[in-house]
Write a structure and sequence with these properties.
Elements (H helix, E strand, L loop, with lengths): L3 E2 L1 H6 L6 E5 L2 E3 L7 E3 L1 H6 L1 E2 L2 E3 L19 H10 L7 E5 L13 H12 L5 E4 L2 H7 L4 E2 L19 E2 L1 H7 L5 E5 L3 H4 L18 E2 L16 H12 L4 E5 L4 H13 L4 E4 L2 H5 L12
Helix pairs in contact: 4-9
C-alpha cells in the first residue's frame, strides 16, 4: 500500500483541486530549547504553498501519561473539519525533521499525523518523502502565505485494525504469529541506555529490533532502496501475520508503520501507548541483554 509521495510528484500536482498539504512539524529534543515544541512559528516563516499547519499537540490527549496519545474519534473529526479536510481529499503530510540536530533522517512527525488520519478513516493519506528539507534543497517553491479553507463536514469511521492496545501487546508475547517490532536505538533495546530507569530498561519480551533512524538516506531523507529495506525486515518478520510497532511514545513507531505498509506488509498496527506507558507498569516484563 502506497504511503509516500516524492517531491517530484507533489510539485507536479500542486494545482490539483482535491490536494491538501499539511505541515505537521514538531521540534523534538532541542538541546538548546524545549523537549517538545510546536512548529507553528517555523511554519509562519516558511512552508509549502497551499499548506495548512497542524498542531499535533491539539490532536493529542493532554491528560494522558504518554505524549501524543490519540484523542477520541469525534474530537479528532471535529478538529479535522475545522481544518477543512474532506473525505475525498488527497492529503500529503510533511515535517521539518525528526529530532533537532539529529544525524539521521526520518519523517516521523509527518508519519505520526498521517497514521492518525488513516486511523480515523481518511483513505488517501501520504507522507512527503524527505519532508521540507528535501523540498528546500531542490529549490522548490515555498511561501509565507497562509491559505484558509472553509469548514467541512465529515462522516468517517475509525479503522481499529491500525491500533494495538496494551492488552494486544500482552497477548502478542504468547502468539508466534504476531511480531512485536521495537524501533528504538539498539542500545536502548538491549538496555545499555535506560530512559525509564535501570529497573525498567530493555524491550518488551519477544520483540525484535530495527532502529527507525536507519531507514532513510541521512543526507537527503529519501527512503533507502526497497530491496535494502526489505532485507532489514524480512528475516525478522518472516512467517508473521501481524506486526505491532512500538517506540517511546508512538511517533517513530508510526514512521516504521508507514514504511512496512509501503513494503507491502498488510496487517500492521501501532502500539500507541508504547514504552512510556508499558515501562511504568512494574508488573509488566521487560528484557535486556545480559
Amino acid at each position: 500500500m502506497k504511503k509516500f509521495v516524492t517531491t517530484e510528484w507533489l510539485n507536479d500536482h500542486l494545482e490539483d483541486p482535491n490536494l491538501r498539504i499539511l505541515d505537521a512539524t514538531i521540534f523534538f529534543a532541542d538541546p538548546d530549547g524545549e523537549f517538545i515544541q510546536s512548529g507553528e512559528a517555523h511554519y509562519a516563516d516558511v512552508h509549502l504553498a497551499k499548506a495548512t499547519f497542524v498542531d499535533q499537540l491539539r490532536f493529542s490527549d493532554e491528560k494522558a501519561l504518554t505524549p501524543f496519545t490519540i484523542i477520541d474519534h469525534d474530537r479528532f473529526i471535529d478538529q479535522a473539519e475545522q481544518l477543512g479536510l474532506k473525505a475525498d481529499d488527497t492529503i500529503v503530510v510533511y515535517d521539518s525533521g525528526a529530532e533537532v540536530k539529529a544525524d539521521y533522517k526520518a519523517d516521523m512527525w509527518a508519519a505520526r499525523f498521517a497514521w492518525q488520519l488513516s486511523l480515523e478513516g481518511f483513505l488517501k493519506v501520504y507522507i512527503l518523502e524527505g519532508g521540507l528539507g528535501k523540498w528546500l534543497a531542490e529549490g522548490r517553491p515555498v511561501t509565507t502565505e497562509v491559505k484558509v479553507y472553509p469548514k467541512s463536514q465529515l462522516e468517517l469511521s475509525r479503522q481499529e485494525d491500525l491500533y494495538a492496545s496494551l492488552e494486544e501487546v500482552k497477548a502478542a508475547q504468547k502468539d508466534e504469529s504476531v511480531a512485536l517490532l521495537d524501533v528504538l536505538p539498539k542500545a536502548q533495546y538491549e538496555g545499555e541506555i535506560a530512559p525509564f530507569g535501570e529497573e525498567r530498561k530493555g524491550h518488551i519480551p519477544t520483540a525484535v529490533n530495527v532502529f527507525y533512524g536507519e531507514l532513510a538516506d541521512e543526507r537527503t531523507g529519501k527512503l533507502l532502496p526497497k530491496e535494502v529495506l526489505e532485507e532489514k525486515f524480512s528475516h525478522l518478520l518472516k512467517g508473521k501475520s501481524t506486526v505491532i510497532t512500538y517506540c517511546g511514545f508512538g511517533v517513530a513507531a508510526s514512521w516504521t508503520f508507514a514504511i512496512l505498509k509501503e513494503l507491502g506488509y498488510e496487517k500492521v498496527k501501532v502500539f500507541d501507548d508504547s514504552l512510556m506507558t508499558y515501562a511504568v507498569q512494574t508488573d509488566l516484563p521487560l528484557k535486556f541483554k545480559e
